[in-house]
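$ ./design --mode recover --in tokens.txt
reading tokens...
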């Protein structure tokens, strides 16, 4: 074995809905080749002048097409890695150069053969629009897989915190008549920034919400924020810093320059002339106000920066920074299930309140608004009580009951309440 042989320092694996990703962490760049074999089905990787630092026995192979991974020496100095497969796959591989966060890597994606991935709703037809369709909210839990995001105290990963909040938000939206949540990622796997936008478009989302818990250079930085896209400059130094950090996620996750959207610059020129950005800012302000009811805000208004994940010209998009995971106090809160639930509740309330006032045509919320004389209506969600609803709309509890013909305090999920004028 040559003295300067390349070393495979670590091998990591993640399962996504439509593929399995394997990442090899390398001591230096390598020369390699890939061979597909049948009877039995195998995928073979030959690496020139290389060796393994650790055995390949602890990879999480459950729910993947990989039955076993083994390795051996070939031609004296070369390394051969064999993936024994239980199903047909379409392999794709590419090396990645080091960046400020990671070293040399080889990325191997094993795409499921004949599987398109996440189920996507059918195109909305005219008939469906007339049938009071749901408003589709795409929930994007930032980072995932080999991209952990920011790191907090005691190895608290951003990707874990934001997925927990996203799942809680999904549950709340799913229990709200008129709203349909879809998850951009629902497990610990990587999705490119462009891929997140593309999934939202495939889902035909009416809103894209990206959830994060980022870090800053100073551990003292604190407070939650809501961001919309800026087609010009960032509204603050911190906003620019956070946008730069988030946009670097593709460098960690394995996106090459050839994967970038070449027409994006032209699209963004038109974006500032549409209502999309105005909607993002208005809806973002509503969400920020709800968060401000229980959490400290980093800034009192929606900020803007060039977040790549928000660059959908046809879908209103916001990014919620739930707090700074680099701040020990906020990290402790963000790791708490009760605090995560408060954050999910606030985001849900902001979304629902805004869409009740600005419902897209043909939706259930638009129909409800059009069929109320005063336009004030509330759809009961899980956890609601009459007293909380009365307090929220600043109306007497007795008046709320009388308006809706209620003798007691029993309500049910999905029930529509008319909100009386305040007294």
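writing sequence...
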């Amino acid at each position: 074995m040559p003295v300067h042989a390349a070393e495979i320092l670590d091998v990591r694996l993640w399962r996504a809905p439509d593929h399995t990703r394997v990442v090899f962490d390398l001591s230096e760049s390598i020369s390699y080749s890939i061979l597909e074999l049948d009877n039995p089905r195998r995928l073979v990787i030959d690496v020139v002048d290389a060796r393994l630092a650790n055995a390949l026995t602890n990879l999480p192979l459950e729910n993947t097409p990989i039955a076993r991974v083994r390795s051996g020496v070939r031609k004296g100095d070369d390394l051969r890695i064999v993936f024994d497969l239980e199903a047909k796959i379409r392999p794709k591989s590419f090396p990645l150069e080091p960046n400020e966060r990671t070293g040399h890597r080889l990325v191997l994606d094993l795409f499921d053969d004949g599987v398109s991935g996440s189920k996507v709703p059918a195109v909305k037809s005219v008939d469906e629009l007339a049938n009071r369709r749901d408003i589709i909210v795409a929930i994007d839990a930032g980072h995932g897989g080999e991209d952990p995001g920011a790191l907090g105290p005691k190895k608290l990963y951003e990707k874990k915190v934001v997925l927990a909040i996203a799942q809680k938000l999904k549950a709340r939206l799913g229990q709200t008549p008129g709203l349909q949540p879809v998850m951009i990622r629902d497990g610990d796997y990587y999705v490119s920034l462009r891929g997140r936008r593309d999934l939202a478009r495939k889902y035909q989302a009416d809103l894209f919400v990206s959830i994060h818990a980022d870090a800053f250079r100073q551990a003292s930085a604190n407070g939650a924020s809501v961001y919309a896209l800026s087609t010009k400059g960032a509204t603050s130094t911190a906003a620019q810093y956070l946008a730069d950090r988030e946009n670097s996620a593709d460098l960690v996750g394995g996106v090459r320059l050839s994967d970038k959207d070449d027409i994006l610059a032209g699209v963004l020129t038109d974006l500032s002339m549409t209502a999309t950005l105005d909607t993002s800012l208005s809806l973002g302000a509503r969400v920020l106000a709800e968060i401000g009811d229980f959490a400290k805000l980093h800034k009192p208004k929606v900020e803007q920066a060039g977040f790549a994940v928000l660059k959908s010209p046809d879908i209103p998009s916001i990014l919620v920074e739930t707090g700074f995971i680099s701040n020990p106090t906020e990290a402790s809160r963000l790791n708490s299930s009760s605090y995560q639930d408060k954050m999910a509740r606030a985001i849900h309330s902001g979304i629902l309140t805004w869409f009740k006032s600005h419902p897209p045509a043909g939706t259930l919320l638009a129909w409800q608004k059009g069929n109320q004389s005063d336009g004030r209506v509330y759809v009961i969600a899980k956890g609601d009580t009459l007293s909380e609803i009365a307090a929220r709309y600043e109306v007497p509890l007795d008046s709320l009951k009388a308006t809706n013909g209620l003798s007691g305090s029993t309500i049910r999920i999905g029930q529509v309440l008319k909100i009386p004028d305040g007294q």
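exit 0
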